[in-house]
Amino acid sequence: MFKQAALRKLAGLARRFPPNSRLAPRQDVVGDVAPATPADLPATLAPTAVIASEPPALDQSPEGAAGLWLLHTKGPYLLARGGDRVPPPITANIALTNKCNLRCEICGSQKSLDLTGSRRRHSDLDRLKSVADTLFPFLVTVELNSQGDPLLYPNFEDVLKLIKKHDCEIKVQTNGTLFKDSIIDLLVDMYGEVNISLDAVGPKFDAVRKGGIWAKAEPGMRAFLARRDPEKLQVGLYPTVTKRTVGEAVSIVEWSRDVGIDTIVFHRYNPLPDGMSIEEPPTQDEYDTARAAVHAWCVENNSPLNVHFEGERLNPDPVPSRRSKFASAVKQSFRRYYIPPSYPVDPGLPGADPVYVCDAPNSYVEIGLDAQVSACCRSQDIALGYATSVEAFADSWFGHNYARIRHSLTRDYDGQYPLPNCESCVKFFAPNSSCGRTAVPYEGSSTVHPDGLSLAIDGDIVLDQIVPFEDKVYRAAGITPGIDIRAFDLVEADAPLTRVESLEAVKRGPSGCYFFTGRTVFFTTTDGKDARFSFSRRRYALRSKAVSDRGPGHDAPADRERPIVDQGTDRVAAL
Predict the structure, then answer these.
(1) What is the signed CA dihedral for 7, 11, 14, 15, rounded to 10 degrees?
(2) pLDDT value for 385
(3) Please, what are the domains in the chain?
(4) The whole model's pTM is what?
């Protein structure tokens, strides 16, 4: 429960900063809820507070959303650091594990982690508790969707307790094979949504979800759906449409109707690089045929669930949400200041922010396995800071790197993106807003660019994404931009390797040498063994020369606050 002092401050701030809408209320939302007033705040704070339906999303002005900061015991500090002009994120995706029990052909992250031999691990629970103390007081939703399946996390119950303690909602993505009774007991007690990655039912499920068995998975899903309260927990499906599964669309919709699924969002398979997967996207004719069949089914059956193909709703009329209970009425009321999508949207389309092409850096934050802060799910390889304390989070959220990223995503900005991932993402999701813009080229011996990111790295940068290049030479790409690589050594275990001046020198040179080019390092191991962690059990990392010069055993202070940075995608994994 929130303290009354914080509520009085919140009410005072609401009077000081009335909403100044940049966007009219959404017309597709059924029902509305007014912001809580000082008179009715205590009555709306019950953990099981009931609201008629999801409140509409309005303007995301810093003034309107600033009151969320005051739900934190260090709210005044956060406001003083910049919270009076930058709103808090209302959603954080927390990485719990990079382990998964399946090996699906559609999963690029799984494929990549297997190829690179990356470490399979869980997030440290004590570190997660620090993240919860830092972020959860002002978060509305905690998303659990990491590289692996979050239901495999051994301390899953503890994580849900932390979420409940702070009256947050959950958003869980799972593969549908892990609904055992103990997991169901935990989930049905929560508020929010659970999304299941399900591309086929019956025998086809066994074929496309490698390691999954429909006869074992379906009873668990049915048991979960039978026990959940649809007024507090929504359940959706997220099928990937491939050449192998395009004919399964109607079967998926029929099964979903029978078991009580609320929403299905079909999305087309985005092919992995050549040779990584046997999956293929459907042809346009196949895709159109499947879409037409599902649309016809929705019309004929007066569909009781919302069905979407990409962003297009196929049922003639939207099905009202059955959700009416929320973890916190006060927190839910703040949704009106946030634009729902956390991805780029062209102007004029539903959910488009009038100021920002992409609103993710204002409303969403990605937290990696080591509590590193990233701007979104597509930029997990770039740590902008840490969420291990309020002070550390404030350093990043209100810092110059985030400011540059936000400014680069305003609709009237025509310069380069400081965040490399923005270039391809905007081109894909909002092509009319791309206008030929490119990302800052982090190239050359120094990767510091006047308009780019400027990152101060505290500790080692661990290279997890290592792949064979040729004849005992290995490559690790995607090194953190915004650092001067001249200030770093490559270390094997705890020993610096030898820097050389070209790739050719690496190929013909002595064992244990390396060469930097742009955001990539090429190297050989000291003993000729495979450099990937799953083979060598050794760690390769970039280490500041100042630390390297002190010799082995001095990689970082034992009591340092910030953990090592993993150079990887932080979103999928394997056992």
Answers:
(1) -160
(2) 92
(3) 169-326 (3.20.20.70), 461-559 (no CATH)
(4) 0.81
